[in-house]
Amino acid sequence: RFAGSSQEDEAWNKYLNRHVPLNTGSYGLLTRGMYAVQLRPWFRAFSRDQFLCLRLESMKYDGVPAIMQLVWDHLDLPNHPVHDESAKNTREYQSMDPQVESYLQRFFQPHNRTLASVLEDDSKEWRDPWPYAEVSRRV
What pTM was estimated for this model as a whole? Predict the structure, then answer.
């Protein structure tokens, strides 16, 4: 099995060395979404319970106060209310070509499954992010 293997780590490191200037994180558009391979080195270096992985979309669908309460709880800090919950740095996107969307869904499906496995969270939000795309095209 390649996903999660030392061979995948080696391939990722070769990619970074060849294509990412000074390891700046300036990944290509597709590799930016390959979160599992980016998180695994962190999970090897630090205890997993030190991390709280959240989806940006959760702020919109679950509400900023609910998500921030998760953050405060994770950091063992008192709640600090957020007074301005409005979205920042947003823009509108044109509708995606259905063929491109289908390609991206197929491309990322195994990566999303791997991410759910790496996060040890098999919930639908990590395995299948695409339902969010239909609700809003704003980022």
Answer: 0.71
